[in-house]
Design a protein that fits this description.
Immunoglobulin-like, five-stranded mixed β-sheet, binds copper (II) ion, 5 helices, Helix Hairpins, about 270 residues
């Protein structure tokens, strides 16, 4: 029996090492605000750890040091004003100390002034549409073909052989690095949510309403996300891919996009 348990545990450990980018915590991300979000998350985590150590430490110490078998008698008071003041004041002070940096960061997250590029993001069942303002660029972004072909039950394509299975799209969102990008997020049908962890953005896409958010990516790279609001049967099949590229690469990409748009307009 114990051999069986050991085998199961070993299997679990090996399964963990097999998935390379397995992680417990939230990512630090690639924007200043994602780093700030991570830092405040860790600050609150360690405050909670400290509170846990003090509370459970006092409790466990009391249980052992004042146990009945040592001859201790229970106290019989029913009210203590000083204890009530202490257990009210200490949490209030801790909460206020945490609320100040949290509120400051929330305000920064909402401050989309001075953005250099604006993109309207519209969610559909089950894909995304990106419309670059001030540029003649707009396109749909849906699940990439290899994932699409491997998706059905009994498909001939093996999902394990597909790169970034269910996390890849045909047309990624392309943005320049070190640029303040404003996203205006809405929906054409039901509730969706635009969620990219590395950018620290999770914003609801609501029909009839425009939610605004922004990011400035510090690093060139590919950042993946998913729809984060249950939106129907293909909710799990509308991933998000953001390609952050160098400025000149971005301009070249815009050029190709407008070229193909013009060609299509001339000869649909
Ligand atoms: Cu959705």
């Amino acid at each position: 029996m114990s051999k069986k348990i050991l085998t199961v545990l070993l299997g679990l450990v090996l399964a963990g090492t097999a998935s390379a980018d397995w992680a417990l915590n939230m990512p630090e991300g690639v924007t200043d605000l994602s780093q700030a979000t991570y830092d405040i998350h860790m600050l609150m985590f360690w405050v909670c750890v400290a509170i846990g150590v003090v509370v459970f430490g006092a409790m466990i110490y009391s249980l052992f040091a004042h146990r009945k078998s040592k001859g201790h008698q229970p106290a019989d008071f029913s009210h203590s004003t000083s204890a009530e003041v202490i257990w009210t004041v200490i949490p209030v002070v801790i909460l206020l100390a945490l609320a100040v940096p949290a509120a400051k960061l929330m305000m920064e997250l909402e401050d989309d002034r001075g953005s250099e590029l604006s993109i309207v993001v519209t969610a559909y069942q089950w894909k995304w549409h990106y419309d670059y303002q001030d540029q003649d660029v707009e396109f749909y972004s849906s699940l990439a073909r290899p994932s699409l072909e491997a998706r059905p039950l009994g498909a001939e394509v093996d999902p394990f052989g597909v790169d970034s299975y269910l996390l890849d799209v045909d047309n990624p969102l392309v943005v320049p690095v070190d640029t303040k990008v404003r996203l205006m997020i809405t929906s054409n049908d039901v509730l969706h949510a635009w969620y990219v962890p590395e950018l620290a953005i999770k914003k609801d896409a609501i029909p009839g309403l425009v939610n605004t958010t922004w990011f400035r990516a510090n690093e060139v790279g590919t950042y993946r996300g998913q729809c984060a609001e249950l939106c129907g049967k293909d909710h799990g099949y509308m991933p998000i891919v953001v390609e952050v590229v160098e400025q000149d690469e971005y301009l070249a990409w815009v050029e190709t996009q407008t070229d193909s748009a013009q060609r299509f307009a001339a000869n649909p």
